[in-house]
Amino acid sequence: MNLRYLGYACINTSLEKTTNKTFRLKNLNYDKYYETVSYNLKSLEDIIRWNRENNINFFRIGSEVIPLASHKQFNFDWENDFKKEMNFLKKLADETNMRFTMHPGQYTVLNSQRMEVVKTAVDEIEYHARFLDKIHPDKGKIVIHTGGVYGDKEKAKKDFIKNFELLSPLAKKMLILENDDKSFDVFDVLEISEKINIPVVFDILHHICNTPCQKPYQNLEEIIEKVVKTWKGDIPVFHLSSRKSNKGCPHTDYIRKTDFRKFISILKKIPVHSQYDIMVEAKMKEKAVIELMKNEQFFN
DNA sequence: GGCCGTCAAGACGAT
DNA sequence: ATCGTCTTGACGGCC
Questions:
Q1: pLDDT tens readout for residues A77-124
Q2: Rounded distance in angstroms from the CA atom of residue A18 to the C1' atom of nucleotide B1
Q3: Are strands A237-240 and A275-280 parallel, antiparallel or unpaired?
Q4: What is the DSSP annotation of A157-177?
Q5: How far is the CA of A210 from the C1' of C7 (A)?
Q6: Which terminal CB of chain A, N or C, has fewer other CB atoms within 10 Å?
């Protein structure tokens, strides 16, 4: 497999723009909402243009692009209020060949034991789906983690599979499942993926953190080949980051070249005739991507 | 203008 | 039982 796009998440540090400007619940009112969403959508536009100038075609849009959109106290009709802006962004995204993903936060727990938490998770995912559908129809993907274990991982997986059915057809089509650093490893998410037919996002650092045998690279090609099959011909997304220390998973400012090269060379060996995209998770965001793009030999 | 406690929200492991 | 951490870190009251 060959590398196609490298992307970054939510913030452009060169432009000092974010799609994640938000406000406190107590400040929720029409003016604040209108002002903040306008800013976020304008930032997204500026970031897309910047990406085009810099040959970056992959971007994760911040979940707070419409702040508090799924909150029960939020009653504004953002889809209507920002129709014009969203249509414009759709056109711009098409013209510039951007690929977008979104990634709801850790509070989105689809397999929770508490029904009200499941409901807010569904609402949150549906909001992401509607947003992405407006500017990136048939292409947008929503990355989530499996959720909590609650002392019984097998049951927790079944609950995820069961609650997946609560989503709309649109959201189901967009959802992709990422292995996490503590609870649900790549084997768990592959198992879930097989049952409900959604693609797996493989995060190499989470895999390393979540591989107790200290041999995370063992059988890695075999694992990744299975992951790629879950995409059913669509171009897979991988997550890449470097860890700051040996403990936990905090990210570095830039990706270590050795981490990048090691990962790329493994993917190179996967015997599937396909390209793939990498979401780079590093504090210096687009600057980390630009650094990696200097390794031209890895692009085809 | 910079600092830092807090923020809509959940789960988990360390203490 | 409580705290810190995970992360897309950002807000905003206080100095």
A1: 999 999 999 999 999 999 999 999 999 988 899 999 999 899 999 999
A2: 21
A3: parallel
A4: HHHHHHHHTTS-HHHHHHEEE
A5: 18
A6: C
